[in-house]
Amino acid sequence: MQVRSFFEKYMDNKIVIIFIDREIKLLREQIDPSYTQQLSHTPIVHGGGSSTERTAIRHLEDKEILELQKKKKLAEADIEVVDRLMPMMSPELKSIIEDRYFKKLTWREIADKMELDERTVQKKIEVTLDQLDMISMRESACG
What we know:
By secondary structure, the protein is mainly alpha-helical. The protein contains seven helices and no strands.
C-alpha cells in the first residue's frame, strides 16, 4: 500500500463525499408526490401492479444508494488513515504535509515559507512517507 496516495487523494475524497451525499439526497427525493401519483395510475395487475412497480423502483434506487454509500465508506476510510497518521508526525512534517497535499502548495512555496531548501523539504516528506509505507507493509504482513 502506498501511504502517499492516501495523502494525495485526501482533499479529493472529501469532495467526493460531498457529491455522494448530494446524489443520495437527490435519489431519495426522486419519488416526489407527482412521480408517485404517476405510478398510481399504472394499471393494477393481480391486485397490486402499481405497488409492485413502486417497490421495484425503490429497490433500484436502494441499490444505487447502497453503491454510493459503499464508495463513501471507502473514501471515509482513506480519510481516516490520514487523520490517524497526522497526529503522529512532528509539527514540521505535519505543516509540510498540510501545505503540499491539503493546500496544494508547490515545493518551492513550502520551502520559501519554511525557509528551507526545496530539496530538503522534498526529502523530509519522502523519508517520512517511505517509513510509513514500510510500517504499513509490516502491519499487512502480520495481520
